[in-house]
Amino acid sequence: MGDVLSHSLEILIESATHTASMLPVLFAAYLFVEFVAHGRRLESLRRLSGHPIAGAITASALGLLPQCGFASAATVMYLDGLIPRGTLIASYIATSDEALPILLSRKESIGWVVPLLLTKFVWGAVAGVALNLAGQAGKTVHRRTTGDPNGAVEQVQAWQPVGMKTELKGRCPAVPTTLHRQDNHALAGPSTQSSPVPTACQKPAHSRKDVFAHALARTVRVGLMILAFSLILHIVGHLGQEKLTHVLVGTGWWQNLIAALVGLFPSCATSVAIADGFQRGMLSFSATVAGLSSNAGVALAVLFKESKSKADPVGIAILLVVAGFLAGMLVSVLGTVL
């Protein structure tokens, strides 16, 4: 009985610590979201975060930070329409969660940390940029085939006002300048430089006090949700951590595929099992890269819980598995050649 209570307390402390370390990052992300959504002079920040190339590279670099705090922050920005799918995938691929502390804990595996981080950064940036550019190309083709070159119909359907209720009166524009993506997370919003919405057509923008209050409220809500997820996933992960390590044992390209599938489980116990298996010599470096590339920690659980679309998180999960598997295979091929 004492062992059970001790283990339960350990899981509770671990989950609480894990969640607490993410709160500052989440709060900063929500502040960014609120300021961009309500600000009238923040178009440059909106364009920067949504840039298909710079955004993906930045997300991949920030994703390398220990824990999955930035991956959760990227999820928040994706759900609020500030970054495209490729940028989100880049942050997920680069995320290492609890693997880094494990690999740094033994001198035998310290030498593999830099190659791992470099591989995840490069692959996350490449995959993110490729997905973003492919998404833009697809939208261009769609607009041409539908006879809507400016994407006006798509903009009206995909965006909605944030923090204000725009009432159409007389000659008020059909698409407000302060917008928020609702369905397809497509970066197709109009510039604030075109035909500003008359004050008679909308309510006043939120004050800075309101922005901070909303950001804090959303942080607390999501933080509590992450704590609940962490408790459940930590319990499941701790109970099956040893089994996860043995499931990963295999040879050839099958190990890369299995590692990518196992890495999808949204818990830090997964990254711990992968890192531990590598330290024991049970996993190859390519399988370790595959598993850690598809592992985004609890961020993926947040995406499934908060997304209004049921198909979108499933599609992202499939992309993560494919990206992780391809990363492992590329490392295997390069290792053979070099």
Mind explaining what this structure looks like?
This protein has 338 residues and is an all-alpha fold. It has one domain (2-337). The protein has 15 helices and two strands. The chain has helices at 2-38, 43-49, 54-63, 69-79, 85-94, 99-104, 107-110, 113-145, 152-158, 208-247, 253-263, 268-279, 285-293, 299-306, 311-337; strands at residues 159-161, 179-181. The chain has a two-stranded antiparallel ribbon with strand order 1-2. Helix 4 runs parallel beside helix 14 (299-306) and helix 11 (253-263) packs parallel to helix 13.
What descriptive keywords fit this protein?
69% helix, 338 residues, two-stranded antiparallel sheet, mainly alpha, 15 helices, globular
Largest sheet: 2 strands, antiparallel
For this entry, what is the oligomeric state of its chains?
single chain
Order of strands in the sheet with most strands: 1-2
Tell me, what's the shape?
A: globular
Number of domains: 1
Classify the beta-strand content into a percent band. Answer: under 5%
Low-confidence stretches: 152-204
Radius of gyration: 22 Å
Structural class: mainly alpha
The overall pLDDT average reads 75
Q: Report the span from N to C terminus.
A: 54 Å
Write down how many β-strands occur, each being a DSSP E stretch of 2 or more residues.
2
**SS summary, helix count:** 15
Q: Can you give the helix content as a percent range?
A: 55-70%
| H and E string | HHHHHHHHHEEHHHHHH
